[in-house]
Amino acid sequence: MSEILRLGRLELRVLDLEESVKYYTNVIGLEVTGREENRVYLKAWDEYDHHSIILQKSDTAGMDHMAFKVKDIYELEKLEYKIEQFGCKLSRISKGTRLAEGEAVRFQLLTGHHMELYTEIEQVGTKTGNLNPDPWPDGLKGIAPHRLDHALLTGDDLKTATRFFTEVLGFRQTEKIVTVDGEDLVGSFMSVTNKGHDLAFVKGPDAKFHHAGFYVDNWYEVLKAADILTKNNVQAEVTPTRHGITRGLTVYFFDPSGNRNEAYTSGYMSYADFPTITWTEDKIGTGIFYHRRELIESFSRALT
Ligand SMILES: [Fe+2]
C-alpha cells in the first residue's frame, strides 16, 4: 500500500498568462486562489487545498511538474531515499518557493518529466464547507469540475517508468497496452488511489505532456462541457465519447497555449487486488475511443 494520498497539483507552462487565467476560470471554471508575477494558482470548487493547478508564464507550453501529496514527512523522507536508490536525480524545493506550499522533493523521471512529492500545503476549504454542506456552491462558472483527476504523459521507456511508479512509489498498474507480440509496453495506466488512473503514460517522445483530466459528475456534464466549449469558441478535439480503457466518459480540448484538457467522468474503481487489464496495440483505437474504434491523428501528434 502506498503512503501517497493522491495527485496534488500540476504546474502547466502557458504562453499568455492573462488569456490562460481567463480560460481556466471562465471555461474550465477554476477559482484563482493566489497570484505572483509569473504564476497564478487555481483550484476546483470541490478541492480544499490552496491549489491544484499552477499556471506558469513561459515561452513554451507543457508541464513544469506533477506533484503527489504524501501522508507525512516521515513517509516523504522514506520515499526520498527510495527514489534516490532507484537512480533519479533529486532536489529539495524549500518552503515558500511557491505560494501556500511547504517543502517538496523534486525529481526527474527517466522519461524526462519532473515530479514532486510534498506533505504540506495550506488548506483553504470549499464554499460548501464541512458542516452540513450543500451538494454544490452557488456561482459556479464553466465546466466547473470537482477536481483535477489525472494526467497523461508520453515517454519512450514505459517499462522503467512503470517499474518506478509501482515498485518505488506504490502505484498499481490498472491497465496496459502491449504490442501484439506482447514484447513491448506502449501504454501504462497507474493508480495510487482507488481511481482507474491517477497517472498514465503512452509511448511517444520523452518529457511531453498529453493531457490533464478534470473530473465532472456524469455523462450529462461531459455533454454540457462540450456545449460550454462551443459557447466559448473553444474547439473540441474529440466530442463526447467513451474510453475502452478505464471505461471513462470524455471530451478533449485545448487551452489557449495548446495544452490538452479533458472533462472526464465515471469509469471503475480499482482496489489493491485489482488485476491489470491488458489491451493489445491492434485494439488501441477501441481502447482509447470505444465508439470510433480508431485514433485521430492529432491525438498522438499534439503534445506540449
Ligand atoms: Fe484522461
Describe this structure in words.
The protein has a nine-stranded mixed beta sheet. The chain has an eight-stranded mixed beta sheet with strand order 2-3-4-1-5-8-7-6, with helices on one face. It is globular. The mean pLDDT is 97. Helices cover 19% and strands 36% of the residues. The protein is of the alpha/beta class and 304 residues long. A hairpin with a 5-residue loop joins β15 and β16. It folds into two domains: 115 residues, Roll (2,3-Dihydroxybiphenyl 1,2-Dioxygenase, domain 1); 154 residues, 2,3-Dihydroxybiphenyl 1,2-Dioxygenase, domain 1 (Roll). The two termini are 32 Å apart. Fe (ii) ion binds next to β9, β13 and β16.
Strand content: 35-45%
Name of the CATH class of the largest domain: Alpha Beta
Through-space gap between termini: 32 Å
Largest sheet, if any? 9 strands, mixed
Structural class: alpha/beta
Dominant shape: globular
Report the uncertain regions.
none
Kindly give the count of domains: 2
Number of helical regions: 6
The CATH architecture term of the largest domain is Roll
How do the strands of the widest beta sheet line up side by side? Answer: 14-15-16-13-9-12-11-10-17
The Cα radius of gyration reads 18 Å
* CATH overall fold name of the largest domain: 2,3-Dihydroxybiphenyl 1,2-Dioxygenase, domain 1
Sketch the topology as an H/E string, one letter per element.
EHEEEEHEEEEHEEEEHEEEEHH
Layout of secondary structure:
Layout: E1 4-14, H1 17-27, E2 31-35, E3 39-43, E4 53-57, E5 62-70, H2 73-86, E6 90-93, E7 104-108, E8 114-118, E9 147-155, H3 158-168, E10 172-178, E11 185-191, E12 199-203, E13 208-215, H4 219-231, E14 236-242, E15 248-254, E16 260-266, E17 277-280, H5 284-288, H6 297-301
Parallel strand pairs: 1-4, 5-8, 9-12, 10-17, 13-16
Antiparallel strand pairs: 1-5, 2-3, 3-4, 6-7, 7-8, 9-13, 10-11, 11-12, 14-15, 15-16
